[in-house]
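Feature request, filed as a ticket because there's no other form

It would be nice if the structure record came with a short human-readable summary line next to the tokens. Right now we just get the raw output. Example of a typical job, pasted below so the devs can see what we mean:
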Amino acid sequence: MKKAVWVSSLAGVMTMLAACGGNADGSGDTVELEFFQFKGEAVGEFDQLIAKFEEENPGITIEQNNVPDADTVLLSRLTQNDIPDVLTINGGATFGDIGDSGMFKDMTGDANTEGILDEYEDMLKRLTGTDELYALPHTVNANGVIYNKEKFEELGLEVPETWDEFIALAEEIESAGETPFYSTYGESWTILPPLNALASNIHGEAFFERLETGETSFSEEYGEVAEKLEELLQYTDNDVFGHDYNIGNTAFANGESVMYMQGIWAIGEILEANPDMELGVFGLPAANEEGSNDVVSGVDVALMIGEDTEHPEEAQQFVDFLLDPENIEIYLDGQRMFSAVEGAEQQDAALQELQSYFDNEQITSFADHYYPQGFEIDVMFQDYLLDGTLEDLLSELDAEYERLSDN
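Raw output as currently delivered:
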């Protein structure tokens, strides 16, 4: 009887604390954390997760802060020592610049790392150039070739595994009266999906270390990348340098090409334009040796904690919550990405062919994540593909790298 009364009394106390917004420690105060979140398209999913977290943790409230041009805003705040409690960041150049600034918690040895794929931890460490881990990978993206499954079936086509098979596929599509690719290089960044797939597979991740030590150069290793990227233009039949990303998504959705070299982030917009379209995605095969082609993937969302947050335990609690596989799957339901954490799987039918790359650890990094800040390789390749020469491109790549490395 006494036990039943005690349990009943405790339940009453907890109910009152929740109603008053108090913590279970009896302080009566609600802890509010700022969650600086860079992805505008993911606000809805994070709102859903925040509501769930707050329901399970009535003494903590989360204020999601999503702003345009989040990288610029974050960098500005860092100069004022105004660090969010918890933030998301893309595993790219900005993270590489600020990760080891001393403003963020070192997550090396964090219990969550036991379930995180090693490849993505390594990517973040390479970006900062340290052995410490200043962010925990949450979800990851991928470059690939998005294709129209209905047209593949209609034409009796198969997914290629080598570069020669890829080119033969494009020729077969052309001979059937269809357009192989829709390309939109009017925006220079849209060159990066095929460029990254080619570069990362052709020169490998060791290239950047050898480049830094002077053992190699762009002139030595980017000729093949440039020639293959230019070859792919032969199989595109649209105003490549007059069209942008949005036009490309809509055109592909309307059946104006059989394949589309883009990141998986484009799938949502394609399906908005044509909800009935049946899509697949395969990794662009850059080399001719079967099994040697990796899918280009990077950390799309990583989680960081401010080193001097006033609420380190609660911040860690929120990060632990976000990295729980069950909660990651809530995010994956709305965002077409893959999990960096074992146990959470992407169920979208369009992405299932890419899953084997992750299962077999056939993953390589985005090459452009490791170029120096300000190294506009997309613009240089855009100029080359418009009317440049290979010799001028390679010379410019070397000169720009040397200039930026000396600064």
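Something like this underneath would help us a lot:
Residues 1-22 have pLDDT under 50 and may be disordered.
The CA atoms of residues 97 and 128 lie 7 Å apart.
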